[in-house]
Amino acid sequence: TPSNTPTPPTSSNTPIPPTPSNTPIPPTPSNTPIPPPTPPVFTIVTPTLGNRTLLKLKEQLRKETVPYIHLIMWDTNRCKDSLTPEEVEDERTYSYVMRHPYHKYPNQRNDVWLRAVGTTLTNTPYITFFDDDTWPEENHLSKVLNYISRNKLDYTYVKRRMWEPNGTIIGIDDFEAIGKQTNWGYKLIDNSSIYLKIETARKLSTVFLEHQVYGDDRYTPEFLEKNAKGERMNQVLVNHISRPELVNFFKQNCSQEKK
After folding, report:
1. Is 223 helix (H, G, I), strand (E, B) or coil?
2. Which helix (H) or strand (E) covers residue 150, if one does?
3. SS (H, E, C) 183-211
4. Residue 257: which region, alpha, beta or left (left: phi > 0; alpha: psi -120 to 50)?
5. How far apart are CA 60 and CA 67, in angstroms?
6. Are residues 48 and 132 in contact, defined by beta-carbon separation less than 8 angstroms?
7. Which has the closest alpha carbon to 88: 118, 41, 56?
8. How many whole angstroms separate alpha carbon 92 and alpha carbon 161?
9. CA–CA separation, 246 and 99 (whole Å)
10. What letter would DSSP give residue 105?
11. 167 Ramachandran zone, left/alpha/beta (phi>0; psi -120 to 50)
12. CB of 236 within 8 A of CB of 259?
């Protein structure tokens, strides 16, 4: 009879489905935790007059897997058809326009001073210097970092491949930037082929400040031999464009690369 027939659910006792007010809110960009940026391991310091070969350096650095920051130190003097500081800045590249406060003697080199200043603007574990007419082999920082760590070094330096300004390969420098006495009576470690712990780089910057002249890299080997532990890494990891007046010098002395 109607009195003992089960009563069907009504709206009052039917379970209420979730509504927007009690449904869990999915994460949104505003409340999703943002991972911290990967700290840079290397600082790369580049003094420049704005040469457009700087773009090739930036392009090669983009292929690095080791995190880095790139400090471009701009001389107030500029070359013809110069890049501008704004053209090269990005999320890891920073431009600093610097005017030298005082020239003590004629022909003082601003690029040497800019290298020293760049060393004071960073605190990454390692630092290296690249002039705007040089560029590295692809992903070379990981090889350098492994070599320094494995051998417990304060610094290392690598072989350089020399190029003519017209883009022709000259050969491998196995005779001058070798950190040992050359046939011309001096030692040389090219400052665009050297990688240092930051503490060692800060010490070396005093040498840059004391020798703001062409050939400043002839003062680098002796200082490092006395103040740090390092050795040459026997790999060609850096490319250099020769100054026009030195092309014949390098042609006469560079070795040809083995295939």
Report:
1. helix
2. helix 140-151
3. CCCCCCCCCCCEEEEHHHHHHHHHHHHHC
4. beta
5. 14
6. yes
7. 56
8. 27
9. 29
10. S
11. left
12. no
For residues 117 and 42, is the Cβ–Cβ distance under 8 A?
no
- Spatial distance between the Cα atoms of 85 and 187, rounded to a whole number of angstroms: 35
pLDDT in tens, the chain (259 residues): 455 555 555 555 555 555 555 555 555 555 666 665 789 999 999 999 999 999 999 999 999 999 999 999 999 889 999 999 999 999 999 999 998 888 887 778 899 999 999 999 999 999 999 999 999 999 999 999 999 999 999 999 999 999 999 999 999 999 999 999 999 999 999 999 999 999 999 999 999 999 998 888 999 999 999 999 999 999 999 999 999 999 999 999 999 988 7
CB count, 10 Å around CB of 83? 21
The separation between the first and the last C-alpha atoms of the chain, rounded to the nearest angstrom, is 101
Q: Chain-centre distance of CA 103, in angstroms? A: 28
Token digits of residue 218: 């002839």
Residue type, 88: V
How many other CB atoms sit within 10 Å of the CB of residue 69? 18
Query: Is 0.90 topped by the overall pTM?
Result: no
The span from the CA of 4 to the CA of 112, in Å, is 102
What would the two tokens of residue 56 be? 């090739």
